[in-house]
Every structure is written in C-alpha cells, then in structure tokens.
C-alpha cells in the first residue's frame, strides 16, 4: 500500500471539514455529499497544478459547495449571529488563504472556522 500524499491528506481534511459543517447544518443528504465529492475532484486537479495551494483547499472546497448549494437549494450556511432582518449566508474568508473561517459581513464578525460551524450554530438547520 502506498503512503498517502500530502495532496491527498489536504483534500481528505478539507472534505472532512466541509462535511462537518454540512452535518452541523443538518443538510448532509446524499445528493449534497455528492456536491462535496465533485468539489474535491475539481480541486484535486487545481492543487496538482499548484501544490503550494494545498493549504487553501479547505476554504475553496467550502466555497465550491456553498455555490453549488445556492444554485440547487438556496443559501448555506445561514448566519446564526444576526437575529433580525433578511436571512443571509456566511462567507468564507480569506477567499484564497490558509485557516478559512465563516464570517458574517453584515455584523463584521468571524462566526467559526470552516469545519466548526456546530460550535456556532449548536447544530441548527441552516438551509
């Protein structure tokens, strides 16, 4: 058996973080998990072309899944911070950088690291 490469480690870690956030939002249905798998496959090619981008892949996969969910189901994850006004989605920051976080631009706060939405939402549905 071949050892797991740093590239595969980064992709698997990113997949796990995004899946954790989907589970926290109670939206980890089979078709949504397929969106994660699609995003991982696409980012595999991207990070093969730019190996130094491995540290950024978690945030990029989170954004890819967020975009795919918006197209099919609606905004995700909804902001757990703002209790009034129109529901709005959180954004990933930095857009291209290590240690991605979900942020609410309306309130100007970091809500949670990618992979840690459960701590911010208490597992509430966010779709």
List keywords for this structure.
single chain; mainly alpha; 127 residues; three-stranded antiparallel sheet
Number of domains: 1
Number of contiguous helices: 4
The value of Rg in angstroms is 14 Å
Main sheet specs: 3 strands, antiparallel
Instruction: Calculate the mean pLDDT score and round it.
Output: 91
How would you describe the oligomerization state of the chains in this entry?
single chain
The SS-based structural class is mainly alpha
State which percent range the strand residues make up. Answer: 5-15%
Q: Give the strand tally.
A: 3
Helix content: 40-55%
Order of helices and strands: HHHEEEH
Shape category: globular
User: What is the CA-CA span between the terminal residues?
Assistant: 40 Å
Low-confidence segments: none
Q: Strand order of the main beta sheet, please? A: 1-2-3
Structural overview:
The chain has 127 residues and is mainly alpha-helical. The protein has one domain. It is built from 4 helices and 3 strands, in the order αααβββα. The chain has helices at residues 6-24, 30-49, 57-72, 117-121, and strands spanning 91-93, 101-104, 109-113. The chain has a 3-stranded antiparallel sheet with strand order 1-2-3. Strand 2 (101-104) and strand 3 (109-113) form a beta hairpin. Helix 1 runs antiparallel to helix 2 (30-49) and helix 2 crosses helix 3. It starts with 5 loop residues before the first helix and ends in a 6-residue tail after the last helix. The mean pLDDT is 91.
